[in-house]
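Progress note, sequence design subtask.
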């Protein structure tokens, strides 16, 4: 939130009860609790591309295409990062990893579908809190590139 306030980016916080059934992921729980469009709510995932940690931001409605992520950053192979590595690098817990304000700035790729919305929702850094902001601001603040990395 400090990143958004410092940059004077208009945003809206959306708190919700993070308790969810075990068959639902954290992103799906946010969509259900907020009654939001699952194509407009984005999950933040951490992968390793050729061994280097990389952040991927994709719609909750789909999944991450690891080959497309690797290609987007000029790599050959991508695999999901170990959750402990994702938490250590980002400073957030799994289910609450935000693309904003991470402890260590990592290469970030946002699915290009984000640009088709006036605003998108991403984790605000903890389970049970989403932040809504213009996708262009998300791209700018994370120094991300956009690419078709979701399926």
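Output:
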């Amino acid at each position: 939130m400090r990143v958004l306030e410092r940059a004077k980016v208009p945003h809206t916080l959306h708190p919700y009860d993070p308790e969810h059934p075990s068959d639902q992921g954290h992103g799906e729980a946010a969509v259900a609790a907020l009654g939001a469009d699952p194509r407009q709510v984005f999950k933040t995932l951490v992968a390793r591309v050729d061994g280097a940690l990389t952040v991927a931001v994709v719609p909750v409605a789909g999944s991450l295409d690891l080959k497309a992520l690797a290609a987007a950053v000029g790599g050959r192979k991508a695999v999901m990062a170990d959750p402990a590595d994702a938490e250590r690098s980002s400073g957030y817990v799994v289910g609450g990893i935000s693309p904003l304000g991470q402890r260590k700035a990592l290469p970030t790729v946002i699915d290009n579908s984000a640009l088709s919305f006036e605003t998108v929702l991403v984790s605000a850094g903890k389970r049970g809190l989403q932040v809504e902001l213009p996708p262009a601001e998300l791209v700018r603040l994370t120094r991300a590139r956009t690419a078709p990395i979701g399926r």
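The CA atoms of residues 45 and 126 lie 14 Å apart. Work on this subtask will continue into the next period as scheduled.
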